[in-house]
Amino acid sequence: MPVNQDIFNFRVTYADTDQMGVMHHSNYLRYFEMARHKLMRTIGVSYAEIEKGGLAMPVIRALLDYKKTAHYDQELKIESGISLNKGPRLLVEAVMRNKAGEVVCTSAITLAYVSKITGKACRPPALIKSKLLNI
Amino acid sequence: MPVNQDIFNFRVTYADTDQMGVMHHSNYLRYFEMARHKLMRTIGVSYAEIEKGGLAMPVIRALLDYKKTAHYDQELKIESGISLNKGPRLLVEAVMRNKAGEVVCTSAITLAYVSKITGKACRPPALIKSKLLNI
Amino acid sequence: MPVNQDIFNFRVTYADTDQMGVMHHSNYLRYFEMARHKLMRTIGVSYAEIEKGGLAMPVIRALLDYKKTAHYDQELKIESGISLNKGPRLLVEAVMRNKAGEVVCTSAITLAYVSKITGKACRPPALIKSKLLNI
Amino acid sequence: MPVNQDIFNFRVTYADTDQMGVMHHSNYLRYFEMARHKLMRTIGVSYAEIEKGGLAMPVIRALLDYKKTAHYDQELKIESGISLNKGPRLLVEAVMRNKAGEVVCTSAITLAYVSKITGKACRPPALIKSKLLNI
Question: Which member of B16, B18, B65, B73 is catalytic?
Answer without folding.
Answer: B18
